[in-house]
């Protein structure tokens, strides 16, 4: 029995991951950001939120520009 033929590198590395926000299963390397740059390409060095959901979250939580309220003289 030859283990080299049965096991491939893709089986050892996690290729797909489910996003915690949208719940879709996506490619780990292409669709998720790396969070730890110092380690090698290990599955634990990638985030659990896909790039699309991360971009939506950042745009939603971005601070609004400070608007000066329109001041009018009180109508007494």
Features:
76 residues; alpha+beta; two-stranded antiparallel ribbon; 4 helices
Structural class determined from secondary elements: alpha+beta
Strand content: 15-25%
Radius of gyration: 23 Å
Molecular shape:
elongated
Strand order of the largest sheet: 1-2
How many separate helices? 4
Give a quick account of the main beta sheet: strands, pairing sense, barrel closure: 2 strands, antiparallel
Your description of this structure?
This protein has helices at 3-6, 9-12, 28-31, 51-61, and strands at 16-18, 25-27, 32-34, 46-50. It is of the alpha+beta class. The protein has a domain at 30-59. It has a two-stranded antiparallel sheet. The longest helix is centred in the last third of the chain and has 11 residues, at 51-61.
Give a brief rundown of this model.
By secondary structure, the chain is α+β, with helices and mostly antiparallel strands. The chain is built from four helices and four strands.
